[in-house]
DNA sequence: CGGTATCCCTGAGGATACTG
DNA sequence: CAGTATCCTCAGGGATACCG
């Protein structure tokens, strides 16, 4: 067992990440974008249950943190495309880990029934 | 680029996990316990900033989800020890991934200055 | 299409004090 | 020591409607 200080040091980076990908929507949005660039309406469908207001806000947050890129194309009507930045793509390992555990958890829950 | 249905299927397990480890405190608590069994007061110190109320609530949630074990010892005064369950330990990979990314993120922020 | 605006509510989370 | 009890704030999130 290590010292308390080491433990606190260990927690810090995780808290940093939690600050960035907090809430129920950010990771689902990032995952959706990891499947390919998406328009606003597409995201609204794939991230089930999200409202336009929340989607708009979360996209802004993610863009501010440089995880995604918002590209506006000068078509008529204007079209907007969201994509993962390289930095956002680097979250893959995190998403994979979460996903693997999530699948195990699901199996565990089913096994109980 | 895959179909929308695949994408939605892909997101589901991640949302399951998020439901379990949501909020700012659960992962820090789990990490602290990964360093060794802890008493309530010890956790209160190592999970910096948490109030006893939140700690109490989060511990209850984590216990309900079988991620931690609460052991009461019949001493005077009574002592309570929290430990990771095997199931809780299986979150290691998730925590590692988050932590690795968090460290990178920190470096990136520092590099900017 | 890609969002805003408005209103609303719950619950996460905090501060402080207290108890068996 | 291991929590409860109260009271409080505020942001996360939802519903619905609307706009350029």
Architecture overview:
Two copies of one chain form a homodimer. Chain A has helices at residues 4-20, 26-34, 40-46, 52-64, 86-89, 92-112, and strands at residues 38-39, 68-73, 79-84. By secondary structure, the first copy, chain A, is of the alpha+beta class. Chain A has one domain: Winged helix-like DNA-binding domain superfamily/Winged helix DNA-binding domain (Arc Repressor Mutant, subunit A, Orthogonal Bundle). A three-stranded antiparallel beta sheet of chain A has the order 1-3-2. The radius of gyration of chain A is 17 Å and the shape is globular. The N and C termini of chain A lie far apart (37 Å). The first copy, chain A, binds a DNA duplex (20 and 20 nucleotides) through α3 and α4.
Estimate what percentage of residues of chain A fall within beta strands. 5-15%
| Order of helix and strand elements from N to C terminus of chain A | HHEHHEEHH
Whole-number total of structural domains of chain A: 1
Counting helices, strands and paired strands, the structural category of chain A is alpha+beta
Over all CA atoms, what is the radius of gyration of chain A? 17 Å
Biggest interface: chains and residue counts? Answer: A-B, 47 and 48 residues
Would you summarize the structure shown here?
With 113 residues, chain A is an alpha+beta fold. Helices cover 63% and strands 12% of the residues of chain A.
């Amino acid at each position: 067992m290590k010292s308390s200080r080491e433990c606190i040091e260990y927690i810090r980076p995780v808290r940093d990440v939690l600050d960035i990908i907090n809430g129920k929507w950010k990771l689902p949005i990032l995952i959706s974008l990891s499947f390919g660039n998406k328009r606003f309406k597409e995201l609204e469908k794939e991230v089930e249950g999200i409202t336009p207001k929340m989607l708009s806000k979360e996209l802004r947050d993610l863009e501010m943190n440089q995880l995604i890129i918002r590209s506006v194309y000068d078509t008529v009507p204007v079209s907007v495309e969201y994509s993962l930045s390289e930095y956002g793509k680097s979250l893959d390992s995190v998403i994979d880990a979460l996903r693997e555990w999530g699948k195990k958890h699901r199996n565990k829950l089913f096994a109980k029934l």
